[in-house]
Amino acid sequence: TQLLEQSPQFLSIQEGENLTVYCNSSSVFSSLQWYRQEPGEGPVLLVTVVTGGEVKKLKRLTFQFGDARKDSSLHITAAQPGDTGLYLCAGALISGTYKYIFGTGTRLKVLA
Amino acid sequence: KAGVTQTPRYLIKTRGQQVTLSCSPISGHRSVSWYQQTPGQGLQFLFEYFSETQRNKGNFPGRFSGRQFSNSRSEMNVSTLELGDSALYLCASSLGSDYNEQFFGPGTRLTVL
């Protein structure tokens, strides 16, 4: 069974703090995506990383793809209440019976 | 460019009934994937259609089926509904090429009573 473990599962922090969310697997991915989901809505794509070691920045969010393309991290600098939501990573498998596996999710709450 | 649309947004059914959900992908996208999301299991892949053919399938029973039309619109059907089928059903579209970015619709919230 292919798994994509995210940590932490839950995170409650004060506005202005920094945080890092991790996404780990034993599988190799052709690409990896990060999403944020609000309650009752579909996930919204934040970024796609494709190359091992790749780093992408989206304002206060920094995404990194591991060198071996098995893991990724999302770092948020100076978190704001608007960052509150469920963060999901999704790996596109190079081979297997289905294309994408989703992480277990990290529920972030940023307190004002 | 319009995003992925799903209809209906909310649905209430009773056990034993069947349901059909619809998804219209982003214009030009040929791949449509369906996912089930529940608090306990997270996001689980159901199946993917590309050019009217099922290309990938997850580990769900045969009560869950789907199809895709020539205009890339897709439908998902669940027969003989069970209480455990209550979930948010999400559709995602992509170009279908190797470099895949999936874009999700708002989902259909299905409640089985």
Task: Describe this structure as you would to a colleague.
Chain A is mainly beta and 112 residues long. In chain A, 0% of the residues lie in helices and 55% in strands. Chain A has no helices and eleven strands. Chain A has strands spanning 5-7, 10-14, 19-24, 29-37, 44-49, 55-58, 61-65, 71-76, 85-93, 100-102, 106-111. In chain A, the strands form two sheets. In chain A, strands 2, 4, 5, 9, 10 and 11 form a six-stranded mixed sheet that branches. In chain A, strands 1-3-8-7-6 form a five-stranded antiparallel sheet, with no helix packed on it. With 113 residues, chain B is mainly β. Chain B has no helices and eleven strands. Chain B has strands spanning 5-7, 10-13, 19-24, 31-38, 42-50, 53-57, 64-68, 74-78, 87-94, 103-104, 108-112. In chain B, the strands form two sheets. In chain B, strands 2, 4, 5, 6, 9, 10 and 11 form a seven-stranded mixed sheet that branches. A four-stranded antiparallel sheet of chain B has the order 1-3-8-7, with no helix packed on it. The termini of chain B are far apart. The mean pLDDT of chain B is 92. Chain A binds chain B through residues 30-31, 33, 35, 40-45, 48, 50, 88, 90, 92, 97-105, and chain B through 4, 6, 33, 35, 42-45, 48, 56-58, 88, 90, 92, 98-107, 109.
Question: What's the structural blueprint in terms of helices and strands?
Answer:
The complex is a heterodimer of chains A (112) and B (113).
Chain A (H helix, E strand, L loop, with lengths): L4 E3 L2 E5 L4 E6 L4 E9 L6 E6 L5 E4 L2 E5 L5 E6 L8 E9 L6 E3 L3 E6 L1
Parallel strand pairs in A: 2-11
Antiparallel strand pairs in A: 1-3, 3-8, 4-5, 4-9, 6-7, 7-8, 9-10, 9-11
Chain B lengths: L4 E3 L2 E4 L5 E6 L6 E8 L3 E9 L2 E5 L6 E5 L5 E5 L8 E8 L8 E2 L3 E5 L1
Parallel strand pairs in B: 2-11
Antiparallel strand pairs in B: 1-3, 3-8, 4-5, 4-9, 5-6, 7-8, 9-10, 9-11
